[in-house]
Write a structure and sequence with these properties.
Layout lengths: L4 E2 L2 E2 H52 L5 H10 L1 H29 L4 H32 L9 H28 L1 H11 L4 H23 L4 H4 L3 H18 L6 H6 L4
Antiparallel strand pairs: 1-2
């Protein structure tokens, strides 16, 4: 009788109670993991939208390759559009910080060293992009005569284009880190067990492609067009599929996954 009970509680009851507690704990961890993944997907989507608007949509309406005068006229004629691009990029970079912190929470139990590296690479790129927007604001102020009103129109255009050129160089530098952060991110996805491994492989490949594209444009500009024919498709596909997975599926968990990738 003593072997079957302890403190008046049957052994079978204690075993069942322990199993119930464990099951409840695992369910809570699963819910927390999926919720964090969905939040990351939402932030990633907003980042992609605001980033594409500021870095692709607005420049396509403003910038005229090889024609500084036309670019200057477009900036002044579409000042509101130009300013929305600035605001959109500031929002985008702020979202980038929130995104990587949520991803850190999602993956820190997978490999904390790689999760910290991922965060560090993102945090290096964000101040660069804030500086890029400062260059754009300065270019606008020069063209409007808010800084030096005594310059001739041609001189204003030259100064404004100098700042816009610095903007392009800043984006090139930041782009290196946009590629580098995908590599530890992809490694974490691959090792996580709750996101498909093929997405991790795509993210790593996309990150490498990103870095190759930027390095080619800086070191071998004559071959940059050739490289850029395939690299954008690579990293864009990787990031779009990752966003969709995080948004729709969240984290596909099982007991083994929860044991190695639990959230506090």
């Amino acid at each position: 009788m003593e072997s079957a009970t302890k403190n008046g509680c049957p052994r079978t009851w204690r075993v069942n109670n322990t199993q119930t507690i464990k099951a409840h704990t695992m369910a809570e961890k699963e819910f927390s993991l999926k919720k964090t993944a969905h939040i990351a997907g939402g932030l990633y989507l907003l980042l992609a939208i605001t980033g594409a608007y500021s870095l692709m949509v607005v420049p396509s309406q403003i910038m005229v390759q090889g024609d500084a005068a036309a670019t200057a006229r477009n900036i002044l004629a579409n000042e509101f559009l130009f300013r929305t691009g600035i605001v959109s990029n500031l929002v985008s970079q702020s979202l980038f910080v929130f995104l990587v912190m949520v991803l850190y929470r999602l993956f820190k139990e997978v490999n904390e060293h790689q999760a910290r590296l991922m965060v560090a690479l993102v945090l290096v790129s964000v101040p660069i992009m804030f500086l890029v927007e400062a260059f754009k604001i300065t270019a606008l102020m020069v063209l409007k005569g808010d800084i030096v009103s005594t310059l001739a129109p041609e001189q204003m255009q030259d100064w404004a284009m100098m700042f816009m050129g610095a903007r392009g160089n800043g984006i090139a530098v930041a782009s290196i880190f946009w590629g580098l952060w995908l590599i530890p991110f992809g490694q974490l996805v691959y090792r996580s067990g709750f996101i498909p491994r093929f997405l991790g492989i795509l993210l790593i490949a996309g990150g490498v492609g990103y870095v190759i594209e930027i390095c080619a444009s800086l070191r071998f500009p004559n071959y940059a067009a050739i490289v850029s024919q395939w690299t954008p498709l690579l990293y864009s596909t990787a990031e779009v599929l990752t966003i969709l997975w995080l948004l729709i599926m969240g984290a596909k968990t099982n007991n083994n996954t929860l044991l190695i990738s639990s959230l506090p």
